[in-house]
Amino acid sequence: MGIMSGMNLGSALGQTLFGSGAQSFTDANRIPMVFTSTRRLRLIDPKFQGISSLLTGNMNEQEATVAEVFFGGQENLSGEMSVIEMMVNPNSITWKQPKRIVKRDTQEGSVFFHFSNSKGQNNDILTMDFRGNTGNINIRSDSNADGGALSTSRGINTGATKKMLIWHNLWQLTREPMLLDDGTINDFMIFYTSPIIPGGIALVGFFGAVLDWTDSADKPNSKDYSFSFTVKETVPPLDNLLQDINTVVIDPSNVVPDIIIK
Amino acid sequence: MTIRGQIQNAFPAYRVYLYGRNVTEDVLEVSPRLQIGRSPNTCSITLANELDKYIFTTNDLKVVFNEDTILRAIKKKDEALIKAADSAEEYLNSSNGEKTSIGNGDSEYIDRVLLDNVTQIKDEIKRSVISQKITERIKGVQQPDISDQLGSLKPLVGDAFRYPFQAEDPIFHANDPVKVWFRDPFNPNRWYHMFTGFISDFDDHVDENNQRILTVVAEGPTKMLRYARITTNPGIVDIKAIEDAEKDAAFRSFYEAGFNHVTLLEFLFAIIFGNDPDGRYGGKFKIKIKGADGKQEITNGRFRGCGRFNFSRSIVIECGPESQSNYKDPYVVSETDIPTASASFAEYQSLIDHEVKDSDLLNMVHEDATTGAIRSDMQNMPKRADGTIDPLAIIDYIGSHPELYPVDGGALIIMVPKSFSAQTNREILLRDIVSSVSMTTEFKSRLSMIYDAMDRIEFCFYESPKGDLICEMPFYDFDPDDFGTESLPNSKIVKDGNLLDEETSRGPFAGRWIINKKDTFNFSKGITDEKIRTQLACTWYTIKSWDRTGGTFDGISKPSVVTLRHMVPLYWLRLETANPKGYIASPEAALAYAHLTLNKLNADARSLGINAVPNLGLWLNRPLFFKPRNCIGRVTGITHTIKWGAGGSMDTRVNVNHIRGWDGLFDDKGNPVYTPIGGAPSQPLNYKILFGLFPKVDSGSASPPAEPALEPIPQSTQGASKKKRKPKK
């Protein structure tokens, strides 16, 4: 199917998240944030090597298979999802990328050391702080008949069971090992969309800490949580983002007009 | 409010190559240390060793030396052999006595399997290094046969691995090449060669959080000279063995520790390039030694050099005026044609300069390599706006081709005053009489022999950051401006009719050797009274018929004395005696030696350590003007450190001795004149006077010039202070 083989991530996400019939994000009602890891993708294919090839499109046959079923949100018997598709997206995400500048004072002035990369940029590592709320996790509010799936049309089920399962998957994801048994790095990946990045972006990196959450009596049916994520790679690269957005703006069919983070 | 110039922006960058691989991405900290003294330059490199990427792990070993694959390969090769051996291990280690041996054909066959297995290693650098090393073998190794003494032991034979990998050791080995470059943080278009050397030590550190750091310490190319030993005075018992080994008795005697009868220049060329006087062995350097009567020519002495140093670019640079001495050495018995050229200080500095330039690609290449392909590659390298090659392309080419640019491929460059005649240095330096004749032959480190010779006259022997071997006179009497305030079109130094460096722009150098207050983080300047001396006595010997008796001498000894009288009231009479290791045969030589020694002792009385913003243009043994304390000193050690990252920094630490301060004296252009501790009279032996560069002194100076400061080296034992001469007007 060639998922992700091009650099138009928005189109790829549109197809994979909302079915092959969806030609773009405009066919979608809501853009869920998606979390996964190399380890979880091995639930689909135990020989899966890593997600860098998945993102860049340099996939072998097996990885292509993984890519095709990747967005299906499969889960195993223990409830562990190969990908975690949020029912309630985080409600606050902060992007932080300080500069690598060190100031040292001399006896008559100061020297600012700019530690730059091969492009001459002195940008430090991108880290992201996520804050969110589980949504309603009162599983008694769900009917047993439909497995806790959200059914807004009937206005009966709240999807609490599903929300709770997804949140527990997310918590477990932040506790996963960094190294797998065969020495492969367990990369974590977030597919992220926002009105400010209408084409979407894939973030590869690792969690800065296990997810923090607060069990408060003030919110008996929902819980606040937060975590940080250190980004080591993005697709498309951040330096190309402006160019990609410019493309989206020129072709409005790629834009989701009613995107909201939650 | 910020003052203009108060804020400086610095852009550190480096490139580090180990064994021809660019490991820059993993370098957390790199710190080359350049020094004069009795040890090579060093460089410490700290690598992030993520997932043991620089370690040959047990798992890697199992993959590479996979027994099944090796056995299968051998089986295809020769079923009979594999039947004879019970296992791959036995096959690999079998002796030729009982079962089979690994002939060249077998090892090549196995090597192909090993190379196939290496491809399974994931990390690119690790895979690349191991695949290059794993098949390098020393052909035809045969252990000595000691079966007569120890019974059943059979000697092992075969092609041994040159790099015997063992599990959990680093993938790099001792003596792998290391090259380091730094970018000038204040001028990002300018890169400098910063270190060339061999790996020496490793520290594989894993902390409680499984953070893995591999620290590599490397030493400069003279490391080779430390381990290459040679004998110069055979012992009584085994002189026959020395003769059997074609050692040349003309070079060596029972009674001298150094080489016999050669000059300092000949000594250095011979100890590095060896001696092949009749050219029968393809050697490049030739000295012919005449017999004790000065007539009989001995040409059969030969010995090996050390390393692959570049003879074709090696040269002696002479600076300053000719000697005015009429002294003739009666012991001239050596004959050679060491290449010599005259040059100014600036031209000399441009020859050894360490800024990365296009011509480095041709100048630094191993002398036996052909340059046609390199010139062709240069055409395709990315260019800058001014048409010169991008320095990073030059660096990458040199760094990734250690076979073309070996660590020990530098030239020997010697800088001496013209007045430092062969006769003088032959006598002062190398008559190194041993205290007693040795019974057995001693083999000495070539490097320690060089350092011993240097110590006697306070010359310096060090490695340039490019890897050249530099021997120089001391420059403690000079000022930065003496090395040129303008860029040079080229070095103008010619050897065999060719420019040694065709680079079109080098320098200027003087501006690099100044540290201002705004460049200074902190400094520490000290004065140690205990190190000051005011009088020095040096013994000399009169020896009759030295050239005919071959060592028996009938001499007397008495000291030549130097006294710094004007310093006596303040520091008292502090007598020091000098017992030169070598043989000093005249009162004039003894007096000169006494001056040198006194200079050397008092040079360390004042010390200065500076921690400053990066100054990559600094050079060893060069004058440094330190503005915050208004003094000039000689650089004895430079350590540049880059610690990368958000908490990182970059600085330069400089150690300085021979510090000269200002005592109110101006030259005729209104510039202050800097003098050593005790003022101008305390240093009658002043190289700047010798070179005619000492400034004309303004007669209206606040402080009149002290007359003894301009005194030439006296030709008698009566001491310097009794002769008077008017200063230059």
Report what the structure shows:
The complex is a heterodimer of chains A (about 260) and B (about 725). Chain A is an alpha+beta fold and about 260 residues long. Chain A contains six helices and ten strands. In chain A, a hairpin with a 2-residue loop joins strand 4 and strand 5. Chain B has about 725 residues and is an alpha+beta fold. Among the domains of chain B are: about 120 residues, no CATH class; about 190 residues, no CATH class. In chain B, strands 2, 3, 4, 5, 10, 11, 12, 25, 26, 30, 31, 32, 33 and 34 form a 14-stranded mixed β-sheet that branches. A five-stranded mixed β-sheet of chain B has the order 18-16-19-22-21, with helices on both faces. The C terminus of chain B is likely disordered. Classes of the chains: A alpha+beta (about 260), B alpha+beta (about 725). Chains A and B meet through strand 4 and strand 5 of A and strand 1, strand 26 and strand 33 of B.
Condensed summary:
The complex is a heterodimer of chains A (262) and B (729). With 262 residues, chain A is of the alpha+beta class.
